[in-house]
Amino acid sequence: MPVVDAALQQRLVERMARIEEMLADHCRGRAQFVSEAAAHLMMAGGKRFRPLLVLLAAEAGPDPDADAVDTAACVVELTHVASLYHDDVMDEASLRRGAHTANARWDNNVAILTGDFLFGRSSELTAELGPEAVLIQARTFTRLVEGQIMETVPPGPGEDPLEHYLDVVAGKTGSLIATSARYGAMFSGARPDVVEALSSYGEIVGSAFQLTDDILDIASESDTSGKTPGTDLREGVPTLPVLMAQASTDPADARLLSLLGRPLTDDAEHAEALELMRRHPAMDQARDHVLAEAARAKKLLEALDPGPVRTALESFADIVATRSS
């Protein structure tokens, strides 16, 4: 998070240190094995963007140091990490944040139940925040899970594949980031219009972050991004630029269209598809879409008073739209 105000940065650093302590405590179960499994991914690191957004959004209200803000920051991170345990089982992943996933270290049953344990911890904390927070969390969780389910099924008859995908991203990624911003503003006593503006900002920026990942999957080089280029492309996973390319009616795209939308297990075909995608106008269309979303998010921040909080959020929207790793 690009915070240029020294005083604000110091407050956030100190508050995040407290959040880390709280998260470690909330991962503890009655049995040592449960504690070890629950802390496995939590202590592996991560951006902690969601709790940090809670704290930053809280600075838009008159009481940013409220205990409920800290509790809310833990709620969203516990929910996020819990979902990662389930994601890894669904994806049959073996690594997460440079460490073995729980399903690889133990098995799928342990991973699923550990995710459930963390969801339970998150629910306990949400109950402390009151009925309104419980309702918000329930709706957020419903959208998150529905997005995960919809990702596994193709668009229905007559449904636009791109709109289907954007809806999946908004549910899977945008919904919890929207709630992060909402909680921070709400529990610090921000005005209702600021709460709504920050919630909408969070959903847009959260979705844009995933869409930028889609672009980087194709555009980045492994030596600069640290990731294997074209991973989603190889697995036949629909992404923003791929879906935009598939909407093409240009006969010159016939070869590319024949390669897209199916797993590319052949290395030569994968390399060919990657090169064709990098040269395709869909890449610029995808970048333009993300830039437009960032501009839309920044427009919402006009509800906030000018100052370091608003500046940091505006800068973050720009970084999300233009990042290279």
Automatic annotation (TrEMBL):
Keywords: Magnesium, Metal-binding, Transferase
Similarity remark: Belongs to the FPP/GGPP synthase family.
PANTHER family assigned: ALL TRANS-POLYPRENYL-DIPHOSPHATE SYNTHASE PDSS1 (PTHR12001:SF69), GERANYLGERANYL PYROPHOSPHATE SYNTHASE (PTHR12001)
Protein name: Polyprenyl synthetase family protein
Essential cofactor(s): Mg(2+)
Any Pfam family the entry gives: polyprenyl_synt
Domain of life of the organism encoding this protein: Bacteria
InterPro entries: Isoprenoid_synthase_dom_sf (IPR008949), Polyprenyl_synt (IPR000092), Polyprenyl_synt_CS (IPR033749)
Phylogenetic lineage: Bacteria, Bacillati, Actinomycetota, Actinomycetes, Propionibacteriales
